[in-house]
Amino acid sequence: MSEDPGRADLDRNFGRRMNKKLADNKSRSGGKPMIGFRFNAHFKPPTGESALIRLIPGNYPTFEGGRAPYFEYVEHYSDRCKRTFICNRHYKLVDDKLKGVGNCVSCYERDNGAKDVSFRPLYGLLLIHLDFFYLIPAADKDGKALIYQQDSKWHKTGDPIMNRVLCSDAEEDDPKVRRAGYEKVFGKLEHWSMGSQHMVALTAKTADLEKECTCGGKIDIPLWTCAGCDHDVIDVQSDPELWTPKKVREVTGGPHECKKCDTNDFLNPNYDCSDCNDPDPLRLWDVDLEVRREGEGTKSMLIIGRHHAQKIDERVKDLIPTRDILHRVFVGDSHQYQSKNLRVKNPFAEEETRRHVQEYDREQREEPAVDDELPY
Ligand SMILES: [Zn+2]
Ligand SMILES: [Zn+2]
Ligand SMILES: [Zn+2]
Asked: For residue 17, with 0-12 CB atoms within 10 Å meaning exposed, 13-18 middle and 19 or more buried, which class applies?
């Protein structure tokens, strides 16, 4: 690529153009620098051809008090400043209602009657976007190259910060980018936030996947047992007329109260594989998934296409963080940041000068910034 004779007339402004574009996105999306994992690595299913992704499961607390592979949080959107904020409260589901604990400027506004601040629980997922990306040096709004301020596993102090820009997007923006000599890499770690409608579409896929074994065989579930005492609750073969697929779905679709041990939980599926003795049904994390979107915003539809059962691509293995990061990516936006953008006086300012300083400081020190741990 670097020997391309047309290289002389390449667009030398491409990097700057792209940075401007990212900076413009920034002022639309939140006003924080776009450099950084939260703003620069946001996955949105494309509306044209599907994107190929690999979901990476985490282990996070849920609002219900359990654990899940996704991260649940609350997002506010305000028409006043056309911005979203991550809520600063911590939530628990109590009597089927979300109860928030802690201070949040957006919530304070809502509690005091603001009609222009929305409230939306979201699910955050981590994924590897399986495609080619250009490494393009990042710059601030004045065009000054951004560099790392400290050493990490991935970079040294002074190394240039690189944006990973999807090749197909960059080329569509400017065909000359092909000749610009940017390094091309495969895969990008991204996060994906979705509302419950998209989550429904994604989880619907699990029913398909459960019919396939990791060995390639076909999976059946002839038996469902109590999670507490292991006794047989649904033995499909014992009464095929009673246990129609519909009836099985009904009983297994929610918690089942066991008359023997009083356990009230989902039944355990007992798998049978056509090809092996160690049935292991595919899960969302075992496949590369084709995803796309139809429509925009809250009215958009998530379309899950084909899945490809295979080991994770060797080229992207190193991109997977060694520990959970989404709770740090989606940490609540500070009171100061929210109040400044909402153009209100920070209602918690006094309290903060007293307490926040020590606590906030401690929190910050306990865990390194997410960006320092990621391969950018
Ligand atoms: Zn809030
Ligand atoms: Zn039981
Ligand atoms: Zn099998």
From this structure: middle
